[in-house]
Specification:
By secondary structure, the protein is mainly beta. It has one domain. The protein is about 0% helix and about 60% strand. It contains no helices and ten strands. Strands 3, 4, 6, 9 and 10 form a five-stranded antiparallel β-sheet that branches. It has a three-stranded antiparallel β-sheet with strand order 2-1-5, with no helix packed on it. A hairpin with a 2-residue loop joins strand 9 and strand 10. The relative contact order is 0.29. Part of the 50S ribosomal subunit. Contacts protein L20.
């Protein structure tokens, strides 16, 4: 059982119980709801045809910033060099439940 969601300009394949790092999102009391669901598969090789009202519910596990990416600009023969760093913020979420067509797929508690 998995779903494909879109957030932060990227697409993620998620399943109940797994943890995913997505770009920084606003969240209230640690709960996030992804309503932009592109595809849902209940079993291997088949997809749900109707996705009206499909949602993915998740809870925030942690927040942070990724590794530093160095951006270096250089123009030869012009004595021009420029170094810049960037660290993208992320939110780590745990997928709790996938809701589609009145069916609910939940994560097993360990």
């Amino acid at each position: 059982m998995y779903a494909v969601i879109r957030t932060g300009g990227k697409q993620y394949r998620v399943a109940p119980g797994e943890t995913v790092r997505v770009e920084t999102l606003a969240h209230e009391d640690g709960k996030i709801e992804f309503s932009d669901v592109l595809a849902v598969s209940g079993e291997a090789g088949s997809f749900e045809q109707e996705l009206g009202g499909a949602k993915v519910l998740a809870e925030v596990v942690g927040e942070g910033r990724g590794d530093k990416i160095l951006v270096f600009h250089f123009k030869r023969k012009k004595q021009y060099k420029k170094m810049q760093g960037h660290r993208q913020g992320f939110v780590e979420v745990r997928i709790n439940e996938i809701l589609v067509n009145g069916k609910s797929f939940k994560a097993e508690n360990k």
